[in-house]
Design brief:
InterPro entries: Tscrpt_reg_PadR_N (IPR005149), WH-like_DNA-bd_sf (IPR036388), WH_DNA-bd_sf (IPR036390). This is PadR family transcriptional regulator. Residues 10-84 form the Transcription regulator PadR N-terminal domain. The protein has 194 residues and is mainly alpha-helical. It folds into two domains: 5-89, Orthogonal Bundle (Arc Repressor Mutant, subunit A), CATH 1.10.10.10; 107-192. It has helices at 5-14, 21-35, 41-53, 77-88, 100-108, 114-134, 150-192, and strands at residues 57-62, 70-75. A two-stranded antiparallel ribbon has the order 1-2. The relative contact order is 0.11.
């Protein structure tokens, strides 16, 4: 099942406890950059309202002694079912190496078990290795003006290589992290089975 990124974040957070829209916003402000996602408070509250309409969440009045009462949102059985359906859906990596979909999936689906996290890491790792092996690093003259001087052509080729190196180093680091994470998760699973 396809859920929007905000849906996943909201359902994932609600699955661990009741939250206000402000609580969600605070979490995204602190952790959103690390999962590659952010949202405005208006988006959060609008989506929580839709969750109530769809029976994915129910509002609960949180009476407070100081200040105005707050509205908490609690995940429903239907909301939990939707989240579980997404967690169990096949993961297909994005062509972009640092796409937020992997980060969001790893954060919320991977947290369900070391086995699920390992499955996601292995899928991403296999995809990244295959993409890196088949990446065409040849010079692409499309962005070079037709009337470029010999000197400009030398510069454009060098600039192309610099850009290619940037992508290569980013993906190489990602692959190294995925390999290290795979080993850590395997060790975690082995220690739990003893």
């Amino acid at each position: 099942m396809t859920l929007a990124r905000l849906d996943v974040v909201l359902l994932g957070l609600l699955s661990t406890g009741d939250r206000t829209g402000y609580d969600v916003w605070k979490w995204l402000e602190a952790h959103g950059p690390w999962v590659g996602y952010s949202a405005r408070t208006s988006q959060i509250y609008r989506q929580l309202g839709k969750f109530v309409e769809w029976d994915w969440a129910q509002p609960i009045l949180d009476q407070r002694d100081s200040g105005p009462d707050a509205k908490l949102y609690r995940i429903t059985a239907e909301g939990r079912r939707r989240l579980d359906e997404w967690i169990d859906s096949p993961y297909v990596p994005s062509r972009r190496p640092l796409d937020p979909d992997f980060q969001v999936r790893l954060r919320f689906a991977g947290s369900t078990s070391p086995e699920k996290a390992l499955e996601l890491v292995r899928i991403e790792l296999e995809y990244r290795k295959r993409a890196e092996e088949t990446f065409d690093r040849s010079f692409d003259p499309v962005l070079v003006p037709a009337d470029a001087s010999a000197e400009d052509l030398v510069w454009q080729k060098e600039w192309h290589l610099i850009q290619q190196d940037r992508g290569h180093y980013m993906v190489s680091n990602l692959i190294a992290w995925l390999e290290a994470t795979e080993r850590r998760l395997q060790a975690q699973i082995q220690s739990q089975s003893k």
